[in-house]
Design goal:
Spore Coat Polysaccharide Biosynthesis Protein SpsA, Chain A; 11 helices; 22% helix; glycogen metabolism
Length: 421
């Protein structure tokens, strides 16, 4: 098949413009998105969520990328400017930031389709053959080149990336029904009663928020939708349901290249899923391999010294077990178990940290016990603090999730924000 021909795929990716929708508010992440947008939330010890779709683009050979921002985008913009400026404009490579500018209408982005529509003049100036639209707030590794190749070979007008999820999870996604040739027959956005797959009573086919459009078709549908009274200006709610009967709209199942099984994909949209997805990485063989040199995750990072573990007394031993510890951390006479520490975390003597995610620039005082927690960037945890043992006491000071994870931010501690979020 021609999709196995590297030259064929490289021509397609070279003529594809990627649009990463990164304006999400991320309200289900509670206080983690009080000062930053969801795509700017740190993940995996040294990355931010936006790094995953950006890295997928680069690794797939797509080097014409626009990032559409809106909600509390300052830290996201800084991160992209600092970490993604290595592409060469002389070769037609770029990562452009497109903040909400009211370029066409006198309002901010109303939905995903409206975000693209309001930048139509910029899209036309780039003149791509295909447009790849991506959500900027999911964790996964995916070769978009294979999806674009299949889109072109099938003669589709639009191809939608999809995964299989349980029916409860499907309520938060676009759910589709397909025929034997993967043509989409039905599409419902966030249905209260998701339709299961044939022969799979507990599983539904859900949209990943990844779309490949033929450029002319995309322009036509965006303009038609903008002229439609009552439209919410959203791909999942409005455009896709309206085009599936008249045009060739296909589903693209996301599969792991080596195993053929469904690929790793996480929507870290709640405190519980954020905590669990981070701690997954501390396992012996985690489902997401960050050590894969053939598919690196790129990011901006400070130049920091190695992590340091000091003191080796019986009751005062600096150690970490089944954990990820990033550069600049100092584990001083304290114990860390099943946890993930971002950069510049200091944990002082006689403290125990277990099953916790500690974001950058946190200082934890002596004689603390912290379990099942997410500690936000810049927190100064006072000496003797106990978190994660008494849900009632925790709820009086912090946010406690449905799954019992305790979120701690500087605001909750009465501390001044010292860092760009």
């Amino acid at each position: 098949m021609s999709d196995q021909n590297p030259r064929f795929v490289s021509r397609l990716t070279r003529n594809t413009l990627a649009l990463i929708l990164a304006g999400g508010r991320g309200s289900r992440l509670k206080h983690l998105t009080k000062w930053r947008s969801k795509p700017a939330v740190p993940f995996g010890g040294k990355f931010r969520i936006i790094d995953f779709p950006l890295s997928n683009c680069i690794n797939s050979g797509i080097r014409q990328i626009c990032v559409l921002t809106q909600y509390k985008a300052h830290s996201l913009i800084l991160h992209v400017q600092r970490g993604w400026g290595f592409l060469r404009g002389e070769f037609g490579e770029y990562v452009e930031l497109l903040p909400a500018q009211q370029r066409i209408e006198n309002n901010w982005y109303e939905g995903t389709a409206d975000a693209v529509y309001q930048n139509l003049d910029i899209l036309r100036s780039h003149n791509p053959d295909y447009v790849l639209i991506l959500a900027g707030d999911h964790i996964y590794k995916m070769d978009y080149g294979a999806m674009i190749a299949e889109h072109v070979e099938s003669g589709a007008d639009l191809t939608v990336g999809c995964i299989e999820v349980d029916l409860e999870t499907a309520k938060a996604f676009g759910v589709m029904a397909v025929d034997a040739e993967s043509r989409i027959l039905e599409f419902q956005e966030k249905p209260e009663h998701p339709k299961p797959m044939p022969g799979r009573d507990s599983t539904a086919l859900a949209s990943m928020g990844i779309y490949v459009f033929n450029t002319k078709f995309l322009y036509e549908q965006l303009i038609k939708d903008a002229d439609t009274a009552g439209s919410s200006r959203d791909f999942g709610k409005d455009i896709i349901p309206k085009v599936i009967k008249e045009y060739r709209i296909r589903a693209y199942p996301f599969r792991d290249v080596e195993s053929g099984e469904q690929g790793y994909w996480r929507d870290v949209g709640t405190i519980d899923s954020f905590w669990a997805s981070n701690l997954e990485l501390t396992g012996v063989t985690p489902p997401l391999n960050l050590y894969d040199h053939t598919w690196p995750i790129w990011t901006y990072q400070e130049q920091l010294p190695p992590a340091k573990f000091v003191f080796d007394d019986e009751e005062r031993r600096g150690m970490a077990v089944d954990s990820l510890v990033s550069g600049g951390c100092v584990i001083s006479g304290s114990q860390v178990k099943n946890s993930l520490l971002f950069s510049n975390v200091r944990i002082n003597s006689f403290t125990e940290v277990e099953k916790s995610v500690i974001l950058p620039d946190v200082n934890i005082g002596r004689n603390c016990r912290i379990r099942n927690a997410v500690i936000d960037r810049g927190c100064e945890i006072p000496e003797g603090t106990i978190i994660g043992e008494d849900p009632v006491a925790d709820a009086e000071r912090f946010y406690v999730s449905e799954g019992g994870v305790v979120l701690v931010t500087p605001d909750m501690l009465g501390q001044v924000l010292r860092y760009v979020r």
